Amino acid sequence: MMTATAVTDADLRQGQTKNLVLALWAFAISFWAWNMVAPLGVRYTEEMGLTATQKSLLVATPVLVGSVGRIPVGALTDKFGGRVMFTVLMLLSVPFVLLVAVAGNAKSYGLMILFGFFLGIAGTTFATGIPFVNAWFEQSRRGFATGVFGAGMGGTALSAFFTPRFVKWFGYTTTHVIIAVALVLTAALVWSAAKDSPRWKPATEPVVPKLVAAAKLGITWQMAFLYAVAFGGFVAFSTYLPTYLKDVYEFDLTGAGSRTAGFAIAAVIARPVGGILSDRIGARTVAAISFAGATVMALVETTVPPPELLAGLTFVVLALFLGLGTGAIFAWVADQAPPERVGSVTGIVGAAGGLGGYFPPLVMGATYDAVAHRYTVGLVLLAIVAAIAFLYTLFGIRRRVAVATA
User: What are the transmembrane regions (predicted)?
Assistant: First the structure.
């Protein structure tokens, strides 16, 4: 077997494109499954008579496991490799996609919360994909690689656009069966066609000490905060935007889903751009631009721009800035995290990003002004947090962070 020291860039190039495409596809399909509840949030609200808070909790619940679960998944990826972990995680997600359909047909809010919680398993594939593609690329192209892989978060756009339409075309239960079958087929494809990088070696130390070691890295927590803002903002809007558009602009389920898909697509396009720009001008610069832009656009949205052009443009530009940030931050991680710790660091940082998307929908639901049909308080809070991230990016991370000693 080829050792890590014997691997050349030429050896890596033989499998880079194929494995990057497979990882991107697996990530996109699993993210579609992860986001199955949110595009139908308006439907569930009407059928179950949910309050704004209940609706927010329902939409946000899958995000929780998809966030926290990334911590052990990242460490397990260091141990077992991306090929195994992608396959296992997608197959584990299948029953919960189907059980969500069972709960929806039963119109049971309690079961929806329970099965939606475990549906979050599908969202943990992010912590597998980053170390998987990172090991396939030379350091000078890791921003590009992680950015392209990260575009798989466009699975949320696919879900926002197609899930309501699939329900209309094929029926509610059949839609969930289709996604379950797609997960099984993708798992089979990854298992048969994907391959771990020849530079990757399975970690031999136990998972818990690996996580402790990753937690001692200063870069882990610095990037965790920034990613919580950038990716958290993306997830929050991707899951809550259908509800926002229904409450503020009175769009129906399909119309809100289409516009949410446009938001997600803009962020997806911007993510690899953020990674590529980070390779050229530095991740710090790109991240700072991202947070400054997000601050401005969140404040613009508090004015409730009129539909269709101005409101749509505001959200698309906001998505572009958030997408740039997500690409830049993981280019930063790939540059500074020790190679043997990339999976563990990715798990913690990815968890922070997911958790960053868990709380905003709850805040939006709690602060919604039903009389004025506005979310002003929530948007102002987003602008404040983005401004803090901007200042921290410029002045809080001054040097390459070394591993902390015990």
Answer: 20-37, 84-103, 109-137, 144-163, 169-191, 224-244, 281-300, 312-333, 345-363, 375-395
